Structures are given as C-alpha cells and as structure tokens.
Records
---
Amino acid sequence: MGFERALKKKIALGGVDTEKMARLEAVMAPWKAVAVAYSGGVDSTVLGYLLGHVFGKPVRLCLVKSPFLAVRELTSARSVASALRLPLQILALDLLAVDAVRYNDTNRCYHCKAAVLQAIGERCKRGEVLVDGSHADDAGQDRPGRKALLERDVLSPLALAGWTKADIRRVARIAGVPNWNKPSQSCLATRVPHGTSLCAAILERIEAAEELLYGMGCLQVRVRWQREGALIQLGRQDLWRLNDTERWAHLLRHMARLGFLHVELDSTPLPSN
C-alpha cells in the first residue's frame, strides 16, 4: 500500500487532476479483478498500470495476436508489459477466418472488435471485469468498435471518469511508462480500402513496406494499399526523410520488389495524437 500511495502522490504532484483520479478510483472500487483489452498503445497500457500499481487491483492484460497485428507492435506490446511488470496473456485469433471481417465492408471495424472482445471475454475468469482503454475524447468520434463494447458490457473506466488523451499521456510520462509518447497506431487492415477483401498476402506486403520506412528512421508510418500501388503517409517529424532524391529512389526500388509499382507520398502529415 505504501508503494501505491507514493505513486498517487507522485502523479498528483505532476499536475494530474486529483478529481479525475478520485473519480477513476471510485469507478474501479467495486472490482475484485480486471482483464484489460490490451493493444500495446498508451491508453490500455496506462489503464493497466493504474489498475495494478496505483489502485492495487489484480489485473491481467489480454492481447489478441492476429494477422492484423504487425510483428513490430506485438514485440513492443510484450516489452512494455514486461517493463511494467504487468501479467500479459496473448490470445491467437485468425480474424481472416471471420467472413464479415475478411469482406472488409464499412462495418469491418465493428465485426473485428466484436470478435476480439468475444475471444477475450470467453477467457475471462469468474468475477473478472473486462475493460478497455477508451477515453473521453473518443466520445465525439465515429468509432464503429464502440457498438461492440456496449453490446458485450465492456467497461471504459477512463471515459467514465472523464479522462482525456492529454490526461493519459501526462500520467504515462510522470510514471515513466515506456510508451508514453508513442503515436496512436491502427491495425494493418485499416490500410486497405473498404470493398477490397482482406488476405494474408496483402497484409504481409503492407507490413513489409512499412518496415522499410521504419528502417529509414521514420517513427509514424502508414502504407495505404492502392491495388498495385501504395500511398505513403508519415508523421510531421518524418516527412523530411523522403526529401532526398537518392533515398526516395532507394525506397521505390524496394517497394517495387514488394509489388508496389506506383508509389505516392502524401504531403499531409498524420495526426500526432
């Protein structure tokens, strides 16, 4: 308990809204044990950290490993959970075997989220509450996955307590959470336009193309599938890396080997949240 009190004091001294912290503690108070739908991103990481190390709840991070999760993201998620000494359970799920997901229509995100939450929920122990890292800023956004959360009675304690993305990042920074400033990520399936059926070959090519860009030092990367071509999107801090003619030519050669014969660079940077 002394360790938990020290963390609360450290977070409070760092400028975190004590009222929001109290509201979050009140939301979590009745829970005996918690399973967190974990992605490796800062939101679910901070939620797991607060549950386990600040509020002293028995907590388990549940990460679904699927063809939509890049190896880089899986490795990072494992590393973060280990660094924070939070128990991690990895569940294998072939989302490409789910017809409604593979068809990739405008409801794909809902069907995907539903399948992921069902897989985690089926493995929840008796008395364990299933939660996710959604926050107050998500409320005003069109998030199809939100419907799946509501249908399966998955709770979003950060949102219920009024925590914003800024609150989450502030706590993560103060507490020394390794991924406190990690840009928001999305799964590989989001790179493929609706109406194009998903398959392992497409996802693998996209992941390989993104690895080329990470290998060039980029930190925030999206490679959008465009039949035999690709649209590259980068964070503001990365756009300059492709201004060099030789570097761009080098990238084009390697992209062509992956089957991307037409490559464009989007001059509009990705949002940095």
---
Amino acid sequence: MSFISWQYAFLLAGVFALYWLLPWRGRIYLLLGSSYFFYGVWDARFLALLLASTSLDFFFGLAIAGHRQSLGKLILNAALPFAWLAGFRLFSGTTTVDNWALGIAAAFPFLFALVYSAMWRLQAGQRRRAFLLGAIVTHLGILFFFKYFNFFAGSLAELLGNFGWQPGWTLLNVILPVGISFYTFQSIAYAVDVYRGEAEPPRDFPLYAAYLAFFPQLVAGPIERPNELLPQFQRPAAWLGENFSRGLRLILIGLFKKVFVADNCALLANYAFDPETTLNGWWATLGVLAFAFQIYGDFSGYTDIARGSARLFGIQLSRNFFFPYMARGPSDFWQRWHITLSTWIRDYIYIPLGGNRGGKWLTMRNLLIAMLLAGLWHGAAWTFVLWGAFHGLLLCLYRLSPGLKRLETEDYGWRMPVSVAVMFLFTLFGWALFRSPGIGHFTHWLQAFGNWETSGYVDWIKPGGWLLIHIVPLLLLQWATAKSRDEIEFTHFPWVVREAGYLILFLLVATSAVSDAEFIYFQF
C-alpha cells in the first residue's frame, strides 16, 4: 500500500478517527491491527516473518533483562507464524505457500523453545550474552537468506566459472520481504540496547508488536531506538491540536517532495541511466543531477509522510534529513543524510569496532568496514558495495588530508561555498554509482564525459529547464525552513505568506500526475 495512494489516505483517516475515541489499550490493538493490515497488503505471507521476528525479540529481550517466561507462552506466541501461513494457504490455495516455508514455520516454536531452555541453563553473564548473540545472529541470518544469499551465491559461481569450474548449485526463488532491512536493524538495536541497560523490555507482547510493526515507519524507517519510541506506546498520548496541524503539514510537504519533485526528476534520471540510452556529457550531467534530487525528494518525502502520519497519533518519529546537499564534507553529509541509519552504523558497528580510539590506521579500517556494510545494507549488488566503499574512502581522505579537513570544519570567507560545492560533486559521483544498473553501465556513464558535442548541448536545454522547474520550488522550501529554523512552520514569515506557501504546495501536488512509482527505499 503506497503512501501516495487513496487506499493509504482512507486507512490513515479511519485509524485516526478511531484512535482518539479509544482508551490506551484499545489504541494499541488498533495500531497493531492496522499495521498488520497495511503490511499484509504488500504480501500477506510477509506477516509470518514479521511475527517470527516479533516473538524472537520479545522473549529474547526479556531473557537478556533476566525475566524468564513460561514455555507454554513462548510456544503459543512462536506458533503464530505457522498459524498465519496455514490459514492463508487454506483459504487462498495450496500454491501460495511453499511446503518448505510451512515446514520451517511448524518447526519454529519447538526449536525456539529448545534453544530458549538451553540458554537458561547458562550462568547469568553467559546467558545474557548468549541471548544477545542469538538475537543478532538469527536476525542477520534471516536478512542474509532473503536478501543476500542469491547475490553471494551468484557472485561466487561467476568467480569460480572464471577458473573453469561450474558449480551445480541453484539460486533460491524467494521474494524479498518489504522493509526487512529496516525492521531487522530496529530489532537488533532493541536487543543491544536492552543488553546495555539503555532500554527496558516491555512484558506486554501486543505492545511490543505494535512498536515493531508501527505502519508509518515499518517499510522504510526511520530506524528508531527503543528508548525513544517504546515509551510513546507505553503511555497514552494526549490530544494536541498542534500535533494534528503539524502532522498534516508534514504530510503535505512529503507529498510535494515525492509527487512534484522526485517523480518528475525520475523521468530524466531513468532516461539517462537506461542501458539503451546513448549518453553524452550533457545528458550524463543532467541524469545524475536529476537522480540526486529524485532520491532526496523520494526518501525525505517518504520520511515526512511517515512522521506526519505518526504525529496524528501523538507519536514523534526521528528526523532523518537535514539539508544534506549543504554538507561541507563526508562526515557532515552523514550527519544530514539518512540520519537514523548513519547513527545506527556508528553506534552498533563503528564504535564497537573501536571507532577512532585505536589510532589513525585502525580508524580508517573501521570507517571502511562500516561504510561497506552501509552500502551492502542498501542492496545486494556490487554498485551498492562500491558506493559504500567510495564514501568510506572519502571519509578517510578527509581525515588524512589537512586541507580537506580544514575545508570541512572552517566556515569563514570562501571556504563555506567551496566546501559545499566540492562535497556536492563527490556526492553526485557516488549517486552515479548508486543509480547505475551495473558496473559496466557506470563506466559507460564516465565515458560519456568525453563527448560534449554541440548538438548534445542543444538537446540538453529543454530537459534542463524541466529539471529547474521542479527543483527550484524545493530549494525555496529548504531556504524558507532553514531561515525559520523550523522544518514545518515558516515562523520567520508573516502568517499570510506562510499560508500562501502551503496553498502553493497543495496546488503543485494536486496538479501533478501521480505515477505508480514506488518509493525507492521500499526495495531496501
């Protein structure tokens, strides 16, 4: 169910209308039911995996905190994925659920109970570490199976084929569950934070299930921390008119970024990065510029809609973007772009590896590992891996070069505009890698800069104007929010100007053709 569909609008309006009429307990069940409905619309079979992850988190989190649960309760909850798949297969036909999936779901409660009981026999310190390790390994194993197995198996087969050996294994025919990368990272953060004593696990299964499956942020984040989001589910929110107005304005801004900016920029980016397109330098430049604003409008637009939707229920989600193309260096960029992912990588990978505590070269190693994994998180393709490696090398370069380091940290005189321009060029190079269908197409994009023929310039003028028409309003919006130091209310401006601005945004959305293009980050 897309955020820009009428189905989502009706769902959101219906849940909102009921939410404020119910007591706290009823709200939890309403959010849980609507979240499962929202996720099940993509593919009802995905719910089984989400239910399994929820059961694992709930019982392992309590175990890490030293709270043992009965095996009967554990088995009952862990049997939910099997019950769901069996019921779905019964009512929709035998071909919809594979026998191997049904078998795994049937065995899951008993294997879970066996492992759970065995871990409780360990000493307290060992037991806590065992449950933490079990949660992390299981979540990463599920993510690897669905998202990365075919990538690594296919890459290894291709490598071995270069040496004359043709392996006989076959690739898996599995569907990538929507949002699995996001809720997997949120689940791991929950287990680690409980282990560190930074979060208290709830003893209420429906409450935790509603927290993990909360529909505005389930499929593409933000990746929330338990100590920030869980307490908002544990206490009833009071009605505030400010939440309603700010929520609607955030949704409007998100729709503007997605429908008016991203989808129109996508027309140019898709053409430029189509393997069948004959590129020249003008179109290579136009294409990567268009994609830079497409992905920003698309992802930040999604986040705004998610945060606005949550705000209607009195729930505040984390800000994920802060004018990323104004970054003065790579470190600054990752404090502005996909903030909840970059802080997750920092807190759960980079710092545990040693961060910057082990000297210059160990710091470089840790940066490269962290960014390689960040690239791989985005997708099972070598272009994503190279994109992550590029940003890792860029972070290392800025740390090693005194001139670049000063350019990023000193903001007087000419340094500010130059540092922003340099980093934006680096960012564009990275986006070309990110958007290219393959490494071969990326080299084709690079080679296009050897051709700046005059006819190419003439052909570039009209689409260049199209791009400007759709990014200038975005830049004006960014300027207005930056000037007011408020991402929603343009408080620096008179009331009439503010309301006129929102009216213009509404008209731009209303007059734009709504495409069936999904949000880019839904695929991750």
---
Amino acid sequence: MKEWCVIYSSLTGNTKLVAEAMAEEADADLFSVEKVPEDLSGYEAVALGYWLRLGAPDPKMLALLPKIEGKDVVFFQTHGTDPGSEHAVTAFARAGYALGADCYIAGTFSCQGKINPKIVEKRKKEAAAEDDPHAGKKAQARWQRAASHPDAEDLQRAHDFMRVMLEKRLKRKARLEAGKM
C-alpha cells in the first residue's frame, strides 16, 4: 500500500483535476469520496479535496471528515471565489473543525474553478442589487475569471504544492522517529 492517498469530491470536475495532479505528484492512490475504502489504516497521509458549498466543504466531504483520524492531512479546495478571499480561507477552518481526532494538518491548497453553470444561471435570474456579493457586477466579473480554471498553471501549482508537502512529511517523519517531537 502507498503512503499517501488522495480523496476528492467533485461536482463539475474541477476538484477531480486538482486531485489527479496531486495524486500523480505523490504517487498516491486516488479515490472519489463515493468510493473511499472503509479502512484507511494503511495510509499515513491523506490529501482531502472538495468543492465549497455555503462556505464549507461539500456535504459528501463533510460526512467523511470526522472518520479521518490519526493522519497527516492536506486539504485542497476548488471554488468560484478568489483563492485568498475570506470565503475560501474560512472554509479551511471549517474543514479542520470537522476533521477526526489526532490529525496533523500539514498544509492547504486553494484553487479557483469554474462555477456550476446551473448556479450561474440561477444567480443571473435573481434581481440582485449592484452590491449583492452573489449576483452583482463584482460577482459576475469573478465568474468570468473563474470560468477558465483550473488551468495548466493551477495544476502545476498543485504539483508544486504536493511536492512541498511530501518533503515536509519526510522531515516530520524523521523528527518523530528521532524523538524530537
């Protein structure tokens, strides 16, 4: 069994693309949230990816998170908002809160992704005020920026991020084995 597995939940394919890039970089087993093995005890580290719904991981990932215990964890998420936005950042905190006991969160990766077209159409039909964060002009500009993501640059960033997480994991493991933690 491999040291890492990557588990993702994807509605539009955005999170799956990022998951595949990370799994490739880590030589990890890759599972959709619907097909996760019940027993993850053979894995020391888990990368968990999800799309955002109401400022938190999607419902399927939220149901899985409490079951992940005693692992080194990396969170990654895709969303229509800007990667450094408060909405994106606080979603990581919500994921961490839902996570099972005795996990070490090694890092987080945020990636803008195209928004589900059904949601965009719904928002366009709403008679929104100019400053409405969900359907105003600023939101529509954000939807346009998100429409081309994840792109090749985003996927390279996912590879690079995972490479750093692998190095970080090796250093942490060595310190644990040396009794320095």
---
Amino acid sequence: MDFNSQHKYRKSQVNGTIYVTSCLSLDAKRLAELESGADELFLTRIHKRCTADHIMQVAVELGDVYMLRFKIDFSGSSRGYAYLQYIDARRKALAMEILQHRFRLDRLKIQVRESRNRKTLFLNNVNHLTPLQVHQELRLISHYVKLCVYEYQPKRYVYIIIYRNNDEAAMAHHMLRTKMGNFGVNAFIDWLDKGQQVTALDEQPSCCVQLSRDSEQLQAKANSCRCFSI
C-alpha cells in the first residue's frame, strides 16, 4: 500500500529531521494535545538504510498517523531513531502491543517504546546577565512556553525553560548550544533530567510570582522575588 496514495500526508525536512504530517483536519482539542507531544512513541534501532517511507508503510496499517519525525544524518541516512504519533489516542496502546511485531514481519528490527517527551531545559552558570536580559536573549533564539527563574544565591540564578513539545525543545537545545557565548563563558544548557543540581525540582515548577513577558515593570518585579516565572 502506498501510504500517500490519497494525499493524506505531506513531507518536509528541517535540518536533520524529516517530517511526515497528516493533512487531515483535526478537532482543536486533540490537535493541541498532539502538538504538545501527547501519545508519542519512540522508535529505535532503525537501520541506517531504512527510510521514513518504510516506517510509514507499516505504521499506517494500524491507523491514521498524525506525525512521524524521522532523524537523519548529514548523508541523509537514518540516525537510528524516530518519533511517531497516531491521531486516535487509542492507537498508541495498540501500537505498543503489535507495531514492533509488524515491523519484524517487514524485516525491520525496530523497537517501539513510549516517548519520554522531554521538553524542559536547564540553563545555569549565567553570571553576567540579569534574569530580564536572559529572557530577552532567549526570545531572540527560540519561543518557549514558560521560563522559571530560581535565585539560589544572591544574584545567582538557575533557569528552567519549558517548551511546547520535545521537537521544539530539541531544536532550542541545539540552537542554544551554538549561542552559549551570549550567556557567558561558563554557561551551559542541558535537559532538566540531566541537571543533577535540580533533580528535586518538579518538571512544572510552581513559582510564587508570574510575570508578564511584556510588562514594563518586569525587572522591578523580578528583583523583588527569588522565585518567579515569565
């Protein structure tokens, strides 16, 4: 079966990711869930000669796919992993049970797991910028959903940056790594679950003050509190 025979999907590429996305009109609530990474599957052990089309040919046998994010290297070969979402939330459970077997029948040794949907980054050792300046630098690089700032010593902060989904967080992580010089010689960015100093923090931290991104008094308000979000 040609998975695109009815023009239900469109294909695009951004840097090292091939996107195969549904062209169907979806309910607004479900679309928002999917865009936030809901019901995402992680496909691993993909052979370097396997293509996004190969995976889609098998995946659509279980139902309509919302998106496949297929990772490739500079030569266009698979990097060994991809992310898959079905439109119908019930298809995730079915895929966890039988999709790996379906791949085996097609001579693909792909493993199917539940995605962790990591979407939170940890920025630390920014010593020469105020929280407002960090906020402004981040806005120039990528769009985040929420920035949480914690003052652990006088005028020393850690930043928890929350993105809409793993895809946006991964792109931001890549871009921020190339721009670390903007945040200081010792600054570093990593995924939150790798940041040993903040392992006790909840992934959706609840700060005592919520500041408007466009507030003219943002800096004054930020200076009055040790824990706030933007």
